[in-house]
């Protein structure tokens, strides 16, 4: 049974934070299970989130909740092993709304790192706002 592969030891990075205000809009707010907090990127094309897991995982589903008007129109999910090069696992086409959206991942290889690239935004300035982000899967052992 698939469950969240994001744990306390998972390392996350983001492309930017609005006005560098990590106390109010930092990456940790995507994972805090609080629907009133969020990661808010700064403006610019191709914002992204990367995750490095403490062990190899196989992915089965991506769950993301954007703020309507600040969602991505297209996303690319990439993954790799520890010292490998990122390769595309899936293309994702979210809707521009506030609901939690779920995207199945078919036949994903085992990965140690993933990168979710928000290729373009519904926002004119390229900002992305994510209230929650989760990846379901299993440990690949």
From TrEMBL:
<protein>
    <recommendedName>
        <fullName>Nuclear receptor 2C2-associated protein</fullName>
    </recommendedName>
</protein>
<keyword id="KW-0539">Nucleus</keyword>
<dbReference type="GO" id="GO:0005634">
    <property type="term" value="C:nucleus"/>
</dbReference>
<dbReference type="InterPro" id="IPR008979">
    <property type="entry name" value="Galactose-bd-like_sf"/>
</dbReference>
<comment type="similarity">
    <text>Belongs to the NR2C2AP family.</text>
</comment>
């Amino acid at each position: 049974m698939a469950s969240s592969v994001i744990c306390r030891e998972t390392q996350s990075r983001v492309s930017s934070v609005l006005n560098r205000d990590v106390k109010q809009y930092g990456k940790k707010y995507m994972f805090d299970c609080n629907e009133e907090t969020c990661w808010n990127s700064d403006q610019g094309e191709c914002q992204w989130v990367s995750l490095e897991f403490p062990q190899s995982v196989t992915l089965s589903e991506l769950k993301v909740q954007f703020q309507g008007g600040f969602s991505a129109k297209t996303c690319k999910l990439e993954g790799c092993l520890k010292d490998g090069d990122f390769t595309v696992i899936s293309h994702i086409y979210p809707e521009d709304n506030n609901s939690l959206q779920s995207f199945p991942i078919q036949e994903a290889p085992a990965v140690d790192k993933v990168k979710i690239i928000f290729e373009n935004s519904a926002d004119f300035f390229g900002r992305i706002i994510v209230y929650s982000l989760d990846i379901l899967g299993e440990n690949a052992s």
